[in-house]
User: What shape does this take?
Amino acid sequence: DTEVTQTPKHLVMGMTNKKSLKCEQHMGHRAMYWYKQKAKKPPELMFVYSYEKLSINESVPSRFSPECPNSSLLNLHLHALQPEDSALYLCASIGLAGSGSSYNEQFFGPGTRLTVL
Amino acid sequence: SQQGEEDPQALSIQEGENATMNCSYKTSINNLQWYRQNSGRGLVHLILIRSNEREKHSGRLRVTLDTSKKSSSLLITASRAADTASYFCATDAKGSARQLTFGSGTQLTVLP
Assistant: This one.
């Protein structure tokens, strides 16, 4: 299984809502990432988890709250978002050194298209 | 943060022609990767070139890397309409703990 899955595919939420994005992989990868991508722009790194611990937070506002409950799952909890947070949210994973082949390639999920009204 | 720039920003060619995209970056790298993204979808890994390699091939793709100029190019030969997509380079910088930084991207349109 060489796939990263993300749910939901699309999400529309109001500024007062609380919602969560979910990402899952079963490749045994021990590093997982959240990216935000605006239209016609490259992905921008938000968070990195290594061995289920948050290792990088790229100064992301606290209205975005990541969680890694186990080595296969990564969540992004959303609360009190702003319309400018509307974007494609991408999850990715990568094997770490010593974990086997292809440990340089990041595998991306299809993304969640988020619209904040 | 965005590491590098790609040019051109947009490229439109006829089917069967070759497409060349260039990427420049700023810091020392472990490797450089190229990804493809169809509109509104996830990124698909195309090819990885390590910092000690100068050229790499995969099917119709050819990637070059010049670490002295901090630049890379992606050549797609005999393009097809299905190659229409955005193409991003991404660098895995030394000491970055497997953190990729993406270039600005090239939007390629292949006309049938």
Remarks:
- Chain A has no helices and eleven strands.
- The mean pLDDT of chain A is 90.
- The interface with chain B takes residues 4, 6, 31, 40-45, 48, 50, 55-56, 58, 88, 90, 92, 94, 96, 104-111, 113 of chain A (CB under 8 Å).
